[in-house]
Amino acid sequence: MTFKALDSLSEQIAHYLAERIVRGELKPGERIQEQKVTAALNVSRGSVREALLILERRHLIEILPRRGAQVTRMTEHNVRSLCALMSELYVLLGHAVAERWQTREQLAPFLAIQVRLQACYEQQDITAFVEESFNVMRAAFPFADNPYLQETIENLQPAMSRSYFLALEQRKASMSEYLTLFAQLLDAVVARDPARIRSVLSAYGQRSCQLVLAALASA
Question: pTM score, two decimals?
Fold first, then answer.
């Protein structure tokens, strides 16, 4: 495989490796050897090193002294910690949208995502459904106008994707539940009701955590 540098070659390599980790092709604890990646992708070793640093920042690998890079292991503690943090970040975004939307046109991206989520549900396309759920956050970024919040969420998103991918089969049963929660969230945002926003997002976070933990226990 050959990569061509566009914005960042290292980002492209990181994305390629992240996809393999998220999908379970690279297993927890498995070593990622710079030399093998360099040869397989026909890229420089420096670009691979930078890519590994990106993956470490996104919590998909850890780089250990004298042992190199290896895929992080998923534990119950890590899953609970990640879900708890993401729930609070979701609430911050939800509050930002509720406080700052002024016209219905500004809410149009969320309504479009709602339509696409419904289509994913009808097609039982779980992978696309999960991706659209992350698009909800990205649509909220302009309202928050907080680069630190956005960077934090973008760095945590691959770890959340990995958790969700593990629980894909379990998530089939929860798709309609998520659609209901999302409709409730939109209502709360339109009403500028921070208490309802927190309640809906907390319920979503807890449910997602349960599904991931169930999948982890049966893996």
Answer: 0.85
